[in-house]
Amino acid sequence: MYFRLSNLNSMKFHIFLTTVGVGLMMALTGYPQERPKVGLVLSGGGAKGLAHIGVIKAIEEMGIKIDYIGGASIGSIIGGLYATGYSADSITKIANQLNWIGFFTDEINRNNLSMNGKAGRERYVIYFPAERFNLQLPSGLSAGQNFSEIYSNLVWPYLTVTDFQTLPIPFLCVATNFEDGNPVVLDHGYLPDAVRASMSIPSLFTPVYIDSMYLIDGGVSDNFPAEAVKAKDMDIIIGVSLGSETDTPYKPGSVGGILYQTTFVRSRTVKKKNESLCDILIAPDFAGYGTMGFHNADSLIVLGERAAKLHISELQALADSLNKFDQVTDTGNAQPQSNYMINEIKTEGLNKVDEELLISLLQLDIPGIIERGCLEDAIQRAYGSLIFYRVSYKIEATGNNNTLIITVDEKPPQLFQFGVHYDSDFKAGMLLNYTQRYGMAGMSLLLSVDAIVSDYQRYKVENLIYTGWNHNKSNRKDRLSWVPNIGISFSYQTYDPYVYDSIGDIISNFHYVQSCPEVFLFYELGNNMNFNLGTNYQYSAQGPNLVRDSVDEATTNTLKFFGRLKYDSYNDKWYPESGAQLDVGAEYGRIFDYDESKDQNFYLYYLSASCALKIASKFSVVPRLYMASLRGNDPPWDNRLFFGGVNNTQIDLQVVPFVGYNFMEIQTKNLVVLRSDLQWNFFGNHYLIAKFNIGNTASQFDELLTDGNVLLGGGLSYVYKSLVGPVEITVMQAKNRQLKGYVCLGFWF
C-alpha cells in the first residue's frame, strides 16, 4: 500500500478544518449551513478496478454519502453503475456473474447467428475484410459490441439522461482526444458511449466518436481525474488509486501488462499531481494480481474493502462530521424509466447497406412501447447478420417524443477467409474463401467462393439472394414477406474412397469425381431454422486408382428434387452443453444413362435429431438419433447410404457417423443409429468425451427393428478447443473390429 504519514496527518487536518470551519459558521449565524460535499475518484487499472467495489462497500457501511463520482477506464465502468443507483452489493453480483472476456470482446452468441451465418462462422481461423480488394483492418481488436449492449442494459432506466449531473449521484468520466492526446471530461451525452470511450484502450478497442472527436481510454491522459471532480465544487475528495506505487521500477511481465504500461505511462505525472488533491487516498496492495485477472473478482473486491478499512479512522471522522448536518445534499432529479414509448426510429452510419434491410433485421414495432429485452434481442439480431462491426442504440428524448437512434459501423463488403484442418481420414487441407456482399434491385446478395486445397480437391461457388428481407415501408415494422430467398450454386469435388471387407480390412481403393449445379429456394424461419426446396443435376464418375483395384469405371447423371428442414440451437457446434439440432429431409432422384433393367428412380428419406443437456456443472450429455431409408432398386454407388467414422463431414454424400468403424466402411439402404456422448469439461477448454453408439442396417426399412445387422461401438476422446479449432484424439473400438485411433485438428470444412 502506498501511503505516507505526512499525507495522513495533512488529510486529517484538512477534514478537521473543513468541518470545524463550517460548524463555526453555523454557530455564528444561527442558521444551518450546507453540508460539505464529498467527491469519489476511481482510477483506471484493468481488472484491479474491481477493488473499487470493495471500497464503495466500506464507504456505504460508514454511512458516507457521495455527492459526485469521477472515473477513468474501469473506474468509469464501476462509477457509472454506482451513479445510476446500484449498491456495492448489486455491483458485486454483476461482477461475479459477468463473463468479462465476453464483455470486452465482440463474441457473438451462436443463437444470434442465422443458419448460414453459423455455417460460415465455424469454418475459418482468420479473416481479412476488404473493399475493392484493398484490405481494411479494424482500428482495434474489439468494436465494443458486447460492452455497449450489456452496459446499456445495466443503465437502461437512465438512457434518456443527457446531463450526468441529474443522475442519482452526479457523474463524470475522462477520455482522451486521439488527435492531440489531451483529456476530455465527459459529464453529459449518452452514458454508455461516454463510459465506452473512457475504457477504450488503444489497439484493443476501437475509438469512440463523440462531439467531433475520436476518443480513447481516459487513462492515457488522466488516469485519476481528481482535479475534474474537485472542479465540481467538492470540498472533500476520497480517491481510490490502483497501482500507485510509481516509485517502484517496472518489470515487464505478461503481454497485457506490457501493453497496459506502454499505454498509460504518459498519465503518471498527472496522476501524482491529482493524488495530492485527495483528502483520503486509498491504494490497495495488488501483489500477485494483474490487470487482466477478472477471474479473481471476489479476491479483488475483498482487497479493496481491506484497503479502505486501513483508513477507518479518517473515514469514521468524516462520517461523524457529516452526520452533524441535518441538511442532506440534493441528489440528481432524473426519473428512472422501466420501458420507453418510442415514436420514431432513425439510423446512423449506413453507407452501402440499405436502411430497409437494417430496419427489417431489428423487427421492432414502432411507434410503440419498447421493453429492455425486446430491444436487446433486436440489436443482437442485427449484429448477428455479420454485416456490421458494431450495432448500438440510444434513446433521444425531445419533449414528449422519444426517438430510437440505431448507430452502425459497416463491415467492408468483401472478406478473405482461411481455415486449416487435419484428420486421419482426409489428411491435411486448407480452405480459401472469398465472400462478397452487394445489393441489387432492392435485394441483398451474398457471393461465396470456396477452394479446398488437399489430397481431395473441393470447390464451390454459391450466390444467395435475400429477397425475403423486403418489408412494408409505410409503417417500418417487421412484416417479413413470404417471398422466398434464392440460392444458386455449383460444386466440384474429388475423393478416393476405400472398399472394405466384412471385418473392416481394405480391399481396394478408387477415384471419385462429382460436379453439381444447384438451384434452391430457402426460407429463414428465425435464426435457428430454415427450410429449403430445390433441384440439382449431379454428374459423377468413378474408376480404379490401380489396375488391381476391383472397381469398374462408370459415369452417372442424376436429376434430384429435394426438400429439407434444419433447426440448430446448439450453443457450440462441436461440443454443445445446451440446445438441439434437427435435420429432416426427402429427395427424389431420376438417374440417366443407367442400366435400363434397373429402376432409374429412387427416393431418400432421412432424419437426424440430437440435443445437449447439462447434467452437472462440468458434465453434459448429448443423445443423438440418425435414421435414413433409400427406396429404389440398386441405385448407383454415390446415391447409397454410408455408415462409419467419428464425425460428420462436409462432402456431398449420405454419411452417418459411427464410432468404432472406418469412415464410409458400410454401404446400406436403411439404417438407424442411437448414440450418446458424455462430455466432461474438466479444465478450461479441455474435455474428455465418452462415446457410445448402437445401430442397425437392413435391406428393408421394416427389418431395422426386427432383424438386420446390429452394430455396437464406442470410444474415448480428449478434446482441446484451440484458436484454430478443436484438437481431438480418439481411441475407439467396435464389435468384431480392432482398436483404432483417430486424430483431428481444426474446424471441419
Offer a concise description of the structure.
This protein has 749 residues and is of the alpha+beta class. It has 15 helices and 37 strands.
Helix/strand layout:
Blueprint: H1 5-29, E1 38-42, H2 51-62, E2 68-72, H3 74-83, H4 88-97, H5 100-103, H6 115-121, E3 126-131, E4 134-135, E5 140-142, H7 145-154, E6 171-177, E7 183-186, H8 191-198, E8 203-205, E9 208-210, E10 213-217, H9 226-230, E11 236-240, H10 255-264, H11 268-275, E12 280-282, H12 297-309, H13 312-322, E13 340-342, E14 344-348, H14 355-362, E15 368-370, H15 372-384, E16 388-398, E17 401-410, E18 414-423, E19 427-440, E20 443-454, E21 458-466, E22 485-495, E23 498-500, E24 506-524, E25 529-544, E26 554-568, E27 579-592, E28 601-614, E29 619-631, E30 641-643, E31 654-656, E32 666-668, E33 670-683, E34 686-698, E35 709-722, E36 725-734, E37 740-745
Parallel strand pairs: 1-2, 1-11, 2-6, 5-8, 11-12, 14-17, 30-31
Antiparallel strand pairs: 3-4, 3-18, 6-7, 6-10, 9-10, 13-15, 16-17, 18-19, 18-37, 19-20, 20-21, 21-22, 22-24, 23-24, 24-25, 25-26, 26-27, 27-28, 28-29, 29-33, 30-32, 33-34, 34-35, 35-36, 36-37
Helix pairs in contact: 1-13, 2-4, 2-12, 3-8, 7-8
